[in-house]
Amino acid sequence: MWIDTHCHLDAVEFDADRAAVLQRARAAGVSMLVLPAVAVPQFEAVRALARAHGLAYALGIHPLSVAAAGDDDLDRLAQALREHAADPRLVAVGEIGLDHFVPADEAARQRQRRFYLGQLALAREAGLPVILHVRRSADTLLHGLRRVEVAGGVAHAFNGSAVQARQFAERGFALGFGGAMTFERALQIRALAATLPETVPVLETDAPDIPPQWLYRTAAERAAGAVSRNEPAELPRIAAALAGLRGWSPARTAAVTAANACRVLPRLGALMAPVAPAAPAAA
């Protein structure tokens, strides 16, 4: 049983064949997807997909969506969290965070920080964990978590230092590992995946984004029309990279990462309770 803790199934890239994408995922053994929203207009789409297909979802405003967000979007998120507070499929506030990779002026950075801190406060009020976007922003995110404590969650697509990884783990976070881990030149990510305590890693695709090595296309190939769309069905093969780095069997990899996901996203654990296996004691 595999859990994809980060999949944008509502993305336009899946509009033509969303049902087939889900069918391939389930055929590959991916039994659960977490669908994080990235902006207020997507809230109902991720909720509807989760309800229709037995999945989980999160509501939040992505840092790269903040520039286009309305000044009242934090209020609209607060309203949505109150309205759906009893929905067992609402497992987190996300995708939220900070992006220091895409160039932005100081005013844009300040707006990102305001939305980030505001969403942490809403998550704390709702008693929900968060799904964090971490791109060259780990220290600033951690500073925010010290100001506004929340019930842990997932640091998505983590690519920070070992020290930063430990600090997130100490605050109740799992770290998401996906397609980037499959590249042999991704030395830092692979070292973290191999050496962090086994209570830390969870698996994700970020589909349709962050394609694994076998789906990667060069800029020239993309310019020539080649498509590189990631799918949740790729998760078991991504997991094989983690298994190889850790020296685990596929069964142990599935069990450990599922247990981690269910621990840091407790409502997900409740959804998975009838089928979630306990982590075995040895490889």
Please write out the topology.
Elements: E1 2-4, H1 18-27, E2 30-36, H2 43-53, E3 56-59, H3 73-83, E4 90-99, H4 106-126, E5 130-135, H5 138-147, E6 153-156, H6 162-170, E7 173-177, H7 187-195, E8 201-203, H8 219-223, H9 235-246, H10 250-264, H11 266-272
Parallel strand pairs: 1-2, 2-3, 3-4, 4-5, 5-6, 6-7, 7-8
Write up what this structure looks like.
The protein is of the alpha/beta class. The chain has a single domain, classed as TIM Barrel. It has helices at 18-27, 43-53, 73-83, 106-126, 138-147, 162-170, 187-195, 219-223, 235-246, 250-264, 266-272; strands at residues 2-4, 30-36, 56-59, 90-99, 130-135, 153-156, 173-177, 201-203. The chain has an eight-stranded parallel beta sheet with strand order 1-2-3-4-5-6-7-8. Strand 7, helix 7 and strand 8 form a beta-alpha-beta unit. Helix 3 (73-83) runs parallel beside helix 4 (106-126) and helix 9 packs across helix 10. The longest helix has 21 residues, at 106-126. The mean pLDDT is 95.
